[in-house]
Amino acid sequence: MELNNAVCIVTGSATGIGAAAAIALAKKGCRTVINYTKSETEARETARLCEAAGAPALLVQANVADDADCRRMADATLAKWGRIDALVNNAGTTKVAFDHSDLNALQATDFQNIYAVNVIGAFQMIRAVEPAMRKQGMGAVVNISSVAGVMGVGTSVAYAASKGALNTMTLSLARALGPAIRVNAVCPGFVETRWLQQAMGPGYEAAKARVAGNNPLRKVSTPEDIAKAILWLLEGSDLVTGEFVIVDGGAHLGGAPLKAR
Prior knowledge:
About 50% of the residues lie in helices and about 15% in strands. It is an alpha/beta fold. Helix 1 links the parallel strand 1 (about 5-10) and strand 2.
């Protein structure tokens, strides 16, 4: 896919991986939709940085867990630019319960809230953009999953399960939406983001050092590292669909699981 003058929606793009992806896309000349639910100040700053990089940005407040909001975001994009070339499903949430053996740390509502954003929200966004992509005869989706969905680790059992479901959905929709639309996923491990720092609290720095020390590349990812993988799946891989790109320094190959201490 040629990203210059393309149009991409990046959900949850006020901060972290989403913001890094939006800015990286803008540097390629891609017109980008910046989506947020609550972080308006940060979203406006991301939009400013995209425009400073030389590409226009559209700010849309929407909750991907709400199907009407997903359709409204797609409609706003089409009204502004007349096409949708790519979708980065980055919006996500979790419930922090690092002790996976404590089954009482999670309730049914925790699973339902997490799945509403991480799985159903991603599906609803794909459904909202699919007609435009099919009409164009091309499109690409990158789901931001997690190594948690591969290894069963992470902030909680519910979070890991949701990312496992997102991985399965990536496979299903890659089959269902081809040949016009490619669907892939990026599975980050430990990423230096405000979101993860807030989730882990005082244990963040120790966990970061432990993960870096236990993976083959001896480092953890930045949001910009994940953005590079996203861009590769969008622009450099026209024959790749239904794949998961794990970006974790090789931590999934062995070593200590992610825990807060």
